[in-house]
Amino acid sequence: MIKKTVSVCLLSAGFLFGVVRLLVGAAMLAQLGGLLAEPALAEGIGNVSQFMAERADIQLLPLPVPVFFANIALMGCLLIAGTAGVFFRKSWGFYCLYGYLMLHGALFVIYLEVNPKLILWVFQCIAVVWLANVRPPIRPQQV
């Protein structure tokens, strides 16, 4: 019973985190594209632009700001799809979660950045491994 409860909590948190990533990424892209004009979003874009400029000499792969936010939105889509897939015990759910983890991990490598978010990423990796053992996909019977 506790494994099921923990699984549902992890999947719910992952789903909500995915929704937030998708909405933030989409809002930032809308701001960059001129569809929105929100000062808070402009400030966030300025912070990301400054972060990227400070690391221009050391980053492994220079990403334009819109590509960075598209990546954030894509990670949200992968989290949403992945948690739904794992909830319904589909193997593609884990593939989506693995894709999310790779994209998220790649950002640490690209920017050669170690920050507290790395701890969250490690926790997410452990959670996906745990879910794979506790809620493995159900394979359809072959006829």
From TrEMBL:
It comes from the Bacteria. Keywords: Membrane, Transmembrane, Transmembrane helix. The chain crosses the membrane at residues 66-88, 95-112, 118-134. This is Uncharacterized protein. It comes from Simiduia agarivorans (strain DSM 21679 / JCM 13881 / BCRC 17597 / SA1).
